Amino acid sequence: MRNLIDIRDLSTTEIDELIAVANDIIANPGKYSEVCRGKKLATLFFEPSTRTRLSFEAAMYELGGNVLSVAGGNSSSAAKGESVADTAKTVSCYADIIAMRHPKEGAPLVASMNASIPVINAGDGGHNHPTQTLADLLTISREKGRLGNLTVGFCGDLKFGRTVHSLIAALSRYTGIKIVLISPTELRVPDYIKAEVMEKNAIPYEETTDLLSAMPELDILYMTRVQRERFFNEEDYLRLKDSYILTPDKLIGAKEDLSILHPLPRVNEIAVAIDNDPRACYFKQVFNGKIMRMALIMKLLEVTV
Ligand code: CP
Questions:
Q1: Alpha-carbon distance 131 to 233, whole Å?
Q2: Nearest residue CA, atom 6 of ligand 1?
Q3: Do the beta carbons of residue 123 and residue 132 sit within 8 Å?
Q4: Do residues 204 and 215 make contact, with C-beta atoms less than 8 angstroms apart?
Q5: Separation of 48 CA from ligand 1 center, angstroms?
Q6: What stretches in the chain show pLDDT beneath 70?
Q7: Catalytic residues
Q8: What is the pLDDT of residue 75?
Q9: 151 CB less than 6 Å from ligand 1?
């Protein structure tokens, strides 16, 4: 039985296979409409979500399966003090696969160690968000036709941005990747990502606070929200929240074929005026998230067309 807790639980070959399945789902959706008939997905979300929970649920419905849902910690027995381990054992009696979001780093891992069905990490604290990474990789692959030989800029809250941590881990396995980390000093990417991911894989990277000077070399610009819910005090959040706001004038030095990504939700980081720029890919990411979650559910349930 397989789980997806960290993007590195999947080999590069498996990611490439998931992307191939996703492209086939986009081309031939009818082929997949019954493959999960009789199967149930439990979405256990102890933190707010629009895209991840709804795309998991839409994915399961589009595969012909059904969904059981906990949307918010207060609506389950977690509010009475039930442990993640007991929740996982319980839900294993009702469902065939779990997607869990939790504010505590490592909670989906604990669930996977106690469940008798596959567990997918749908975001754990400021740690990881591997299925967002699958959406990001499909988007990059479809936009650029490759996952290697790219200069990728990550901009914003690189300390708490779990999507950033997971995507760096995934991209570090492809050749010709260069990473530019653009953030306020206080929100730099954690040292363990630098040491255990980029340096270990000999990925060239640079850190800067200056988005405009980095812009001309970027093939991908991955904007992120400052993660208010992870700050210890509101004053720091208010000081840092608008550090980077992408507006059309800031794209003057950018490549014509730049791809602008954002895991969403956005607050102020990307002006609405950018939405009609052909380089804006963030709503394509939303769609691709559902498709990659369909491919992932099929893989973990070991169902085939
Ligand atoms: N990208 C993402 O995780 O969005 P939600 O928080 O809406 O699920």
A1: 29
A2: 49
A3: yes
A4: no
A5: 8
A6: none
A7: 51-52, 80, 101, 129
A8: 81
A9: no
The confidence score (pLDDT) of residue 227 equals: 78
Predicted pLDDT at 214: 97
Locate the ligand 1 atom nearest the alpha carbon of residue 129 and give its number. Answer: 3
Would you say the C-alpha torsion 178, 183, 186, 187 has a positive or negative sign? Answer: negative
What is residue 203's three-state secondary structure?
Answer: coil
Question: Quick one: tokens of 272?
Answer: 């609405």
pLDDT in tens, 153-208: 999 999 988 899 999 999 999 999 999 999 999 999 999 999 999 999 999 999 99
Residue 222: per-residue pLDDT: 98
Q: Which of 137, 127, 165, 125 is nearest to 261 (CA)?
A: 137
How many CB atoms sit inside 10 A of residue 228's CB? 14
pLDDT of res. 293: 98
Give the residue carrying structure tokens 């589009």: 62
Which residue out of 46, 51, 124, 261 has the highest number of ligand 1 atoms within 8 Å of its CB and is therefore the one to mutate?
A: 51
| Region at 177 (left for phi over 0; alpha for psi -120 to 50; beta for the rest) | beta
